[in-house]
Amino acid sequence: MGQSAQLGKGEIGMKTVRLTAAQALVCYIENQFNEDGDRIIEGVWAIFGHGNVAGIGEALYAARDRLPTYRGHNEQTMAHVAIAYSKQLKRKRMMAVSSSIGPGATNMVTAAALAYVNRLPVLLIPGDVFANRGPDPVLQQLEDFGDGTISANDCFKPVSRYFDRIMRPEQLLTALPRAFRTLTDPADCGPVTLAFCQDVQAEAYDFPVSFFTKQAWIVRRPEPDAIEFAQAVDVIQRAKNPVIVAGGGVHYSDACEALKSFAETHNIPVVETQAGKSALAWDHAMAFGPVGVTGSESANIVCRDADLIIGVGTRFQDFTTGSWSLFKNPMRKILALNVQPYDSVKHGALSLVADARVGLEKLSAALKDYRGADLSPSICAHWYAAVDAVTQAPVEANTLPTDMQVVGAMQRTANENTVVMCAAGTMPGELHKLWKSLGPGSYHMEYGFSCMGYEIAGALGIKMAEPHRDVICFTGDGTYMMANSELATAVMMGIDFTLIITDNRGYGCINRLQMGTGNAEFNNLLDHAHHVNPSAIDFVKHSESMGAKSRKIASISELEEALADRGGKGVQVFVIDTDPYPSTEAGGSWWDVAVPEVSDRHEVNEARAKYEVGVRERNEL
Question: How large is the average pLDDT for residues 355-364?
């Protein structure tokens, strides 16, 4: 077979084929497909180093014309690219990421946690120490004084849905099917880590040829249990003012059309989480906007009065529920339709474990002519009037723009192929509140882990997943400084997207939270951090140095003109200064952020008193 990990015609009739463990890994990956006929792992991101260059590197080189290998600049952001790719493709296709054994491996732990929290699949293949322990301690080896089996890769265990350490080549025969089952299972989906001992990567074994037969992995669509289903139908039929909270599971199960039909047929309003946003077009009659801490007044009013909250594919994160202060009807019940039983029983919910699409379709058939109460269209009209007011261009030409006005400029130049994306800081809240999604897949937010540094890498992954999309990445100056290197990767690979850098000179979002809890401005904005020389970062020059087409924008009108002319080849970067203090006052809900019980600051004591009122009101629900 030589250096190739692809089986030739002459080898198909053989019972075994001799491959290194790394070659067997690559060959197996090449032959795993989804039910649509697409290969599940579409490519591998790798930074080669001590622990993966000799074994995995050799195997990937042999397969380079069939299974592309991409090179990034940081292991964490490479994994972010892979995660965003899978998220945009609704978990149907994904990527693998390989690293060296030490800092390269631990660099990926944050990305693994991001994928874990968001229930997104990525195959992580960090190199590991020598299984034979001959050269112990090998370069970069972490030594545990009391446990000889520990390596740095044990950091992945709490942030992996499946973890395995490959210490013999034949262990792949059981580890790889388990890995792909996890990657493709809608309930257990998440990151898989195969810590691959570097000596084992190079060891040969006579693998069964049948192990490399082309395999299609079917995404299960579990149907509801009869008893749970009957209870769900009964509780809906008894409800007078139900509301649907649409989460990310609606997208992952291809249930957007089923949700739309269900809401229309039964006259039930739909509100959206960060992950669920864009399940319905913003102007659909049953779309009542984003919900929760960063939600709309319209959605939160509906949730406040609802006697039944129907969660569909949501894990009821605190931003969604206003730290469980949002649902104020004393008679309210929760029905959780979710493929994962863990999520279906939270806070005493009535459980309905099923695929979101299957569950909605079956519920609709059983409910027949049931309809919820009519709601006034003025609820949404009032909210979007508030949206338009804060997103319009400044009246005063010399006024420092707000982030809301930046969102407005982008909204006015968006088209049917536009995808807006972000992750952490100010923009996720403003986009959740203000962005008018035109349809499914047009809004991509990583807010489960709220990970600064996801943005640029994520934009790259989205564009690789759907090259026809008009990808707009929002990032603040703070998160840009954390992780910008994949901008150079995008330029090198010829991947085109638009990056808007809102420069508010620090961490404006957390600065506002700091002030809101009565604390003094401290260590968030650059001017309030310890420094000898004032910061003078030129983001235009910096991004230009990596090959982007960059431009400093002086006003919202100029930004709108620039966005209207976007397109063509290359990464386009627009840098605009914004005011770090304002945020959208309309909408939103209480959020449980503990305020110090004792402080010398009068402002903190006042904030604590308000906090205690919020906690008491929440606990009384």
Answer: 98
Question: Which two three-digit tokens encode residue 100?
Answer: 């060296």
Examine domains 9-217 and 226-375 and report if their fold is the same: yes
In the chain, the amino acid numbered 1 is M
Pick from 356, 350, 304: nearest CA to 330: 304
Do 376 and 524 meet the contact criterion of CB atoms below 8 Å apart? Answer: no
Give the three-state DSSP class for 79: helix
Half-sphere exposure of 507 (CA within 13 A, CB side): 17
**What pLDDT, on a 0 to 100 scale, did the predictor assign at position 399?**
83
| Nearest one of 291, 287, 336 to 311, comparing CA atoms | 336
Residue by residue, DSSP assigns 322-391 as TTTTS---TT-EEEEEESSHHHHTGGGPEEEES-HHHHHHHHHHHHTT-------THHHHHHHHHHHHHH
β-strand 308-312 against 333-338: which pairing, if any? parallel
Bridge-based pairing state of the strands 287-290 and 270-272: parallel
For residue 11, name the pLDDT band (cuts at 50, 70, 90): low
Delimit the domains of the chain by residue range: 9-217, 226-375, 382-577
Architecture per CATH, 382-577: 3-Layer(aba) Sandwich (3.40)
* 357 close to 373: Cβ distance less than 8 angstroms: no
CATH 2.30.110.10 for the 9-217 domain, yes or no: no
The pTM is what? 0.96
User: Which residues, 6 or more positions from 302, have their beta carbon under 8 angstroms from its beta carbon?
Assistant: 243, 269, 271, 288, 375, 379
Three-class DSSP category at 269: coil
Architecture of domain 226-375: 3-Layer(aba) Sandwich (3.40)
Mean pLDDT, the chain, as a whole number?
A: 96
- Asked if 547 contacts 478 with a C-beta cutoff of 8 angstroms, the reply is no
What is each CA distance from 199 to 90, 135, 152, 164, 543, in whole angstroms? 36, 11, 16, 16, 40
Under a CB-based contact definition with an 8 Å cutoff, are residues 196 and 125 in contact? yes
- Whether 545 has a pLDDT exceeding 50, the answer reads yes
Burial zone of 385 (CB within 10 Å; 0-12 exposed, 13-18 middle, 19+ buried): exposed
- 475 Cβ contact partners less than 8 Å away, ≥ 6 residues apart: 422, 425, 427, 455, 456, 499, 500, 501, 502
The whole-number average pLDDT for the span 326-338 is 97
Under the banding of pLDDT at 50, 70 and 90, the label for residue 394 is confident
**Residue 397 reports pLDDT greater than 80:** no
What is the pLDDT confidence band of residue 6, given thresholds at 50, 70 and 90?
A: low
Name all contacts of 367-371 with Cβ < 8 Å and 24+ positions apart.
Answer: 367/233, 367/236, 367/237, 367/265, 367/266, 370/236, 370/237, 370/266, 371/266, 371/267
Rg over alpha carbons for the chain, rounded to the nearest Å, is: 25
The 10s digit of each residue's pLDDT in 60-90 is 999 999 999 999 999 999 999 999 999 999 9
430-489 per-position pLDDT tens digit = 999 999 999 999 999 999 999 999 999 999 999 999 999 999 999 999 999 999 999 999
